[in-house]
Design a protein that fits this description.
- The complex is a heterotetramer of chains A (353), B (137), C (557) and D (153).
- With 353 residues, chain A is mainly α.
- Chain A has helices at residues 10-18, 25-61, 77-86, 98-115, 133-154, 158-189, 194-200, 217-220, 222-236, 247-250, 260-285, 296-317, 323-352, and strands at residues 204-208, 211-214.
- With 137 residues, chain B is mostly helical.
- Helices cover 62% and strands 0% of the residues of chain B.
- The longest helix of chain B has 29 residues, at 61-89.
- Chain D is an alpha+beta fold.
- Chain D is built from five helices and five strands; from the N terminus they run αβαββαββαα.
- Chain D has helices spanning 2-17, 52-56, 87-91, 117-121, 131-139, and strands spanning 40-42, 62-66, 72-78, 97-99, 114-115.
- In chain D, the strands form two sheets. A three-stranded antiparallel sheet of chain D has the order 2-3-5. A two-stranded antiparallel sheet of chain D has the order 1-4.
- The chains are: A mainly alpha (353), B mainly alpha (137), C alpha+beta (557), D alpha+beta (153).
- At the A-B interface, helix 2, helix 4, helix 5, helix 6 and helix 11 of A face helix 1, helix 2 and helix 3 of B.
Chain lengths: 353, 137, 557, 153
């Protein structure tokens, strides 16, 4: 077990190092800005890796070799792709709803990035630790669907339009189960502050052959974990719930009319969003950055990549559901199950305490 | 203790600046070759047939209304979950803290059941499209 | 269903123990019958253009000809002619051609659309390419060529050199009013020709009501390559054979058999038994390759673009193609059959070939188990496919559906067994049918057909291995130039991977056919798409299209 | 649920076994069968200018120019138009035209794909496979056998 309860956030540490006064809003803001730049760069680098990793992972599942030409293991493809995409011509279709069309990529990319503000990534890397951390992170994560709707509706393209309608329907169906399941964790932890939720998971659940199994909520409440993983897949729009994009049906959904840097932002934003989902799963159920031997931040990255790998795995083997089936699964299955989970958790906690 | 929301604001600034930075880099790099036809919207290679500013059957109106109700419910559940454990540890009886919430959720479940029975929580099949379908025996 | 009851009650007219009694059928038609023609495998009943519906309805209801296989149109020096090739789903050897001559001045003939729904597209094609018009046809438009096309290319007085001004902007959007109407909340949308799901260049004019399909109309012809005309300019002996490979370009080799069968029957050419075994084996390998591709692309439609199944299916298809490459020298465009046999024996050393093929067959059960694990047993897949894209058997028959599409609707129809050719009758295999009538049933049929094909290949390998060395005759003696008697007509069909692939040939005494008509299974199967997907969700429209397994090269020809 | 898990287990099995079935194309030359049909090779020394290949070609890919004494002057083959049916090789009585296994050919314009007899002569063998050798056992079926009526068109 590394790291005791995190006492300080990254801006505070930085203020200490740089000798800034945390009580002066301006100096505090400066420290936070530096911290944010660090975290933002970390997450963007992490997501840029996806360009390479995603192809390699898909290739592994489909028995192919995949990229290995540019640089070692084809890693330089990231640079090549970035340059290629950024230097593409930006084609803005006729009669798009201009402000919304331009804003959508921004909204998607920044909202996903914003979620990382409260995620404890280990080794004191956390920008802020507000009391309502969990509520905040759910709120920010669901902002992404707003981006999708804006992109889809502003494009003036019929496929995009269908895609944005689907995005709304999907969001309606999965937001509530997601939040209700997440909240069941709060019953155990008794707080919305994410650092405390992580800390609560560091106790030893039981010892198995000398190995201390921590009380990660994935072990304590595996049912909630499975439910949350499924709802999270829908929240980030991955198979079997990737219907807002569904290339075989509606070409590329809300993305159809985007090119050049706008496409990059949508693409990147989507993957930051996947990682944000993974980070929430990690924080709520997998003990956050906790882990033996390695530093916390490494464990944190390993865990979010594991969740990302899972999304790619389902992509290779699970069929896409239909929109009406999605609504039914969401409202008749997941909602009922998540309410049951909440009540059961409350009862169990009540009896045990 | 310093205000965490200022720190979050800083990240928001970074979160907007990074995409804006990428946009300006792209602006410097990318060519601009305006051509007639390039800017028409994509419709599978055919000439686009009208725009999307039309009245369209969205089929999930009822679900959307239900969502509003249930979303507020989750908001109400938040504070309860936060104090639940500490209240129990401080000696509040299980009945006192659990029962009201159970009643609350129970009412919602009854509501969901009612909506379910009335077919509000499913994708509404379009009567027009369904009538196109040849009736099967 | 009241219409069908009397048919079941009394025995069909004109059926004897050894085939059809054409005299009885002629008597049935009575005065509507003008004349009788002799075709190679059947007879042609000549009726007047305004008696078409009556004659066809009588034949359908009284004599049980429930399968309108094809409509061939052609132009003679003095007349136009439409030929309705009728068959029975119960016994496709019972064939009858209904010949409808119309005058050159006024080529108008009654439409058979009321009797056989499948005549719709066939007659549109006849109008498009030859120029015969059909009265009472619900939708007399061009089908393969653009609306703005000048002239009818298979007509005698067609001027090939005339300019065809077909600019993009002149394409009328036929559904313009549909989406502009303010009083509905539907939306018109094009699915295809450049769309990820259409597996080629198909255009579906779709009207959506929400997520549901209110109306869909396939628009074909983007891949029209004048294959019929091409074949009319090639010699029977050599030049036509390379082209069938290009019709259904996923399961190529079987198509060659369609031409080989028609031309061999026409010119009375025998095929040595050894060559028949080789043909049977290679055709079944090709069918497997085609079904693997169908399975993979269907998975793509249901699972999304990153599914692993597509790659696995392609891997297995590649192995079948490798074997075919060893045998024929090409992976897809084999050109392996010749009139009177095949071009090559098994490659030397033969043992290596046997080993390679047997390895493939031995690995197959494990691979099919894997497919079943990944596809058919997957609950979400079942939810997606069961009861979607439903094609009831009587509707399927109306549209002339054949192949896995018909067999997925419980229609027990397979020309390999019902109208035997090649070495199939000597081998032990089964026709696969499923009663589901839905997308799921069609997938099951294809997967089981792969197993059956494997059984056939296995038996052929055994036969080839034991074949005495001095009896390995690859080809019979065939004249260098084939000139069938003038005005002999033949329609014959084989079962390719998609269904009944029929060829109509009329000779005019030269070494090239005077009329070469291809009846492609995908053409008829695709016609049933609106029936299957109106009222369904968009996602199911795509899945249904995938499960029809149409190949545009074959639809548009 | 079990079905979904079975499917996921199958893909994971494939991911973990590390096998790939794709090849690194330009680095590893793919195996082709001895019978594979690629670009033609033409031997002017063998050719007797009987024009059978020109006649049999289904889409006029081969163009032969002779003088009045039927001496060959030109032999052109539009490789971009060829459908690789191998009929020309099949009818050639003297094996003057052969389809090599070579399938790699490029050009900047379509015109460059119209090969004349010199270019055809210089088409390289693919991996030194001589198609004549691999197809020899079968050629007997074609030349000098069968009593069918011979028509030199």
């Amino acid at each position: 077990m590394t790291g005791p309860l995190q006492a300080t956030t990254l801006p505070e540490t930085l203020s200490g190092l740089l000798g800034l006064n945390t009580n002066d809003p301006l100096q505090w803001f400066l420290a936070a800005l530096i911290a944010s730049a660090l975290v933002g760069t970390l997450m963007l680098t992490n997501t840029a890796l996806v360009i390479w990793a995603k192809r390699k992972i898909t290739a592994a599942f489909t028995d192919r070799i995949a990229i290995n030409r540019v640089g070692p293991f084809g890693l330089l493809i990231i640079v090549a792709d970035a340059v290629r995409l950024l230097s593409k011509e930006l084609i803005v279709p006729d009669e798009v709803d201009r402000p919304a069309y331009d804003l959508a990529p921004l909204v998607l990319a920044s909202s996903a990035l914003l979620g990382f503000a409260v995620i404890p990534m280990g080794n004191g890397i956390q920008i802020a630790d507000p009391e309502t951390g969990l509520a905040y992170v759910f709120a920010v994560a669901s902002l992404a669907s707003l981006g999708l709707v804006m992109a889809g509706y502003a494009s003036n393209n019929k496929y995009s339009f269908l895609g944005s309608l689907r995005a709304v329907a999907q969001n309606l169906a999965y937001e509530i189960p997601l939040v209700l399941t997440g909240v069941s964790v709060v019953i155990f932890a008794g707080t919305l502050r994410l650092s405390e939720i992580v800390a609560a998971q560091s106790e030893t659940l039981f010892t198995l052959g000398g190995l201390a199994i921590p009380s990660w909520y994935a072990f304590v409440n595996p049912f909630a974990f499975v439910l949350f993983m499924a709802a999270n897949l829908a929240e980030v729009g991955r198979n079997p719930f990737d219907i807002p994009e569904a290339p075989n049906e509606i070409v590329a959904g809300y993305m159809t009319e985007y090119s050049s840097v706008y496409f990059v932002l949508l693409y990147l934003g989507e993957f930051i969003h996947v990682f944000l989902g993974a980070a929430i799963v990690t924080t709520l159920f997998l003990g956050g950055p906790a882990g033996p031997v390695l530093p916390g931040i490494v464990w944190f990255l390993i865990k979010i990549w594991a969740v990302f790998l899972f999304t790619q795995w389902t992509r290779s083997a699970v069929p896409r559901v239909r929109i009406d089936q999605l609504i039914e699964i969401g409202w008749k299955g997941m909602l009922v199950l998540s309410i049951a989970n909440l009540v059961l958790t409350a009862v169990i906690v009540g009896v045990l305490v | 203790m310093s205000n965490p929301w200022i720190a979050i604001g800083a990240l928001a600034l970074v979160g907007i600046l990074i995409p804006l930075g990428m946009m300006s880099v792209s602006k410097l790099l990318r060519p601009r070759v305006p051509e007639q036809g390039k800017t028409s919207t994509y419709e599978s290679g055919e000439i686009p047939t009208g725009d999307t500013r039309i009245r369209f059957n969205i089929q999930y109106y009822m679900v959307a209304l239900l969502f509003v109700v249930f979303d507020i419910e989750t908001v109400l559940i938040f504070p309860w979950t936060v104090i639940y454990r500490s209240a129990l540890e401080n000696g509040v009886s299980l009945m006192e803290i659990l029962a009201p919430m159970l009643v609350f959720i129970g009412v919602l479940v009854v509501g969901l059941g009612w909506a379910w029975r009335n077919g509000a929580v499913k994708w509404v099949r379009s009567p027009r499209a369904a009538s196109e379908r040849r009736t099967k025996q | 269903m009241s219409l069908e009851e009397p048919r079941d009650a009394k025995p069909e007219i004109g059926v004897t123990d050894d085939g059809l009694d054409y005299d009885a059928l002629a008597a049935l038609l009575g005065d509507t019958l003008l004349d009788r023609e002799d075709h190679v495998t059947t007879e042609g009943f000549v009726v007047r253009p305004d008696d078409v519906q009556d004659a066809l309805r009588t034949l359908k209801q009284e004599a049980g000809f429930d399968h309108c296989s094809c409509v061939t149109a052609q132009e003679y020096q003095d007349r136009y002619e439409s030929i309705y090739h009728l068959k029975k789903y119960d016994d496709p050897t019972h064939e009858l051609s209904v010949v409808v001559p119309t005058s050159r001045d006024d080529p108008v003939s009654q439409s058979a659309n009321d009797v056989y729904r499948t005549a719709d597209w066939h007659e549109r094609e006849a109008y498009d390419l030859v120029g015969i018009e059909y009265e009472d046809h619900p939708d007399m438009r061009r089908i393969l060529l653009p609306e703005t096309w000048q002239g009818h290319p298979l007509g005698r007085d067609y001027d090939q050199t005339q300019p065809q001004v077909v600019t993009l902007r002149e394409h009328a959007n036929p559904l313009q009013e549909d989406h502009m109407a303010d009083d509905t909340d539907t939306m018109f949308i094009n699915v295809g020709p450049h769309h990820p799901a259409t597996h080629g260049v198909l255009h579906l004019k779709t009207v959506l009501d929400g997520e549901q399909v209110a109306d869909v109309e396939p628009d074909i012809g983007y891949l029209h390559r004048c294959e019929e005309q091409l074949c009319q300019q090639c010699t029977y002996r050599h030049q036509i054979m390379p082209y069938p490979d290009r019709w259904d370009y996923t399961a190529n080799l079987i198509n060659e058999w369609s031409y080989a069968r028609a031309a061999e029957t026409l010119a009375d050419i025998d095929v040595p038994e050894y060559a028949q075994v080789l043909r049977t084996m290679s055709a079944e390998l090709s069918r497997m390759a085609g079904h693997f591709l169908a399975l993979g692309t269907f998975a793509l439609d249901v699972y999304g673009e990153f599914t692993a199944i597509f790659q696995y299916a392609f891997r297995d298809r590649e192995i079948a193609q490798d074997i075919l490459e060893d045998l024929t020298g090409q992976r897809m465009m084999h050109n392996y059959f010749r009139l009177g046999g095949v071009v090559w024996d098994l490659p030397n050393p033969r043992e290596e070939f046997f080993e390679k093929t047997r390895d493939f067959l031995d690995d197959l059960p494990a691979k099919l188990d894997e497919y079943h694990d990944m596809i058919t047993s997957n609950e979400i897949f079942q939810v997606r496919c069961v009861n979607t894209g439903v094609l009831e058997p009587d509707v399927a028959k109306e549209y002339g559906a054949t192949g896995p599409v018909a067999r997925g609707s419980g229609i027990d129809y397979d020309l390999r067994r019902d109208d035997p050719y090649g070495y199939y009758p000597e081998l032990d295999w089964d026709v696969v049918t499923e009663d589901g009538c839905d997308n799921y049933a069609r997938v099951l049929v294809r997967m089981q057909e792969v197993e059956e094909s494997a059984k056939i290949v296995e038996q052929c390998l055994d036969l080839l291995e034991d074949w005495p060395e001095d009896e390995r005759t690859l080809q019979s003696n065939v004249p260098r130039t084939i000139k069938p008697e003038p005005d002999t007509e033949i329609y014959s069909a084989i079962e390719n991977a998609k269904g009944e692939l029929g060829i109509y040939i009329r000779s005019d005494g030269t070494d090239k056919p005077a009329r070469f008509k291809i009846r492609s299974p995908s053409f008829s199967n695709l016609q049933a798409l609106p029936e299957m997907s109106n009222g369904e969700y968009v996602a199911d429209l795509i899945a249904t299209l995938g499960s029809l397994d149409i190949i545009l090269g074959e639809v548009d020809r | 649920m079990i079905g979904i898990l079975k499917g996921m287990a199958t893909t994971m099995k494939h991911a973990l076994d590390g096998e790939t079935f794709t090849v690194e194309y330009p680095d590893t030359a793919p195996d082709v069968s001895p019978r594979f049909r690629g670009v033609h090779k033409f031997s002017q020394e063998r050719c007797i200018w009987c024009r059978q290949c020109e006649n049999v070609c289904p889409n006029d890919t081969i163009q032969i120019v002779t003088d009045e004494q039927r001496n060959g002057e030109q032999y052109n083959l539009h490789i971009g138009q060829c459908i690789y049916c191998r009929l020309c090789e099949e009818v050639c009585p003297v094996d003057a035209i052969l389809l090599t296994q070579n399938f790699e050919f490029t050009a900047d314009t379509k015109d460059e794909l119209a090969y004349n007899k010199e270019q055809l002569k210089n088409v390289p063998w693919y991996k030194d496979i001589d198609p004549l050798e691999s197809r020899e056992p079968d050629r007997g079926a074609w030349i000098g056998e069968g009593e069918g009526e011979i028509d030199y068109q």
